[in-house]
Amino acid sequence: MKLVLFGATGMVGTRIATEASARGHQVTAVSRSGQSPIPGVTATAADASDPAKVAELAAGADAVASACVPPRDGSDPREPFLAINRALVEGVRQAGVRRLMIVGGAGSLEIAPGQAAFDQPGFPEAYLQEALAHRDVLAYYRALDDESVDWTYISPAAEIRPGERTGTFRIGGDRMLTDDHGNSRISAEDYAIAFVDELEKDAHPRARMSVAY
């Protein structure tokens, strides 16, 4: 499979590129720097907010994936992040690529019906704007009014960080998955396994799924 991955140099993006390449997929790692430390991965520089460039890189691909994150410069990230995702959709449409996979956020996962994690007392203020940006992006995908884009939005657990690649985790939907102690965790390595599994199987078309231990 030929995969074009935007945001490929971040914590999650590098692990998705590594996992996909290790399974024999042809990966083009796209970032602003145009660099990738992963052997066997083709690196190129581009801006995901440019739909023409997205279309150019996506031409002939089987799937496009985004591990892009909202701006973290202190400005309101919601509209810029939404603009990136609009450009991705426009670009894949121009390229004729149906499959689009999105690294999502955890803040919009429900801890009870109708109660998102970011609505709860004690949700870290430092992460609130980013969580709202991810919420807006998920709403945008859910509102797409045609089926030309076969998207999947994959939310990690509340805590995701570099760790062990175990291959053992659970898959859920809109509800936040927790362990017996109430913790919601996943390693970036295991998240990448779930992401590439979904890339290969397309088991959650036009839907949000979640991954946690």
Automatic annotation (TrEMBL):
Gene Ontology MF terms in the entry: oxidoreductase activity, acting on the CH-NH group of donors, NAD or NADP as acceptor
The protein's matches in Pfam families, at most eight in alphabetical order, are given as: NAD_binding_10
What organism is recorded for this protein? Streptomyces sp. R41
What protein is this chain from? NAD(P)-dependent oxidoreductase
Q: Where is the NAD(P)-binding domain?
A: 7-199
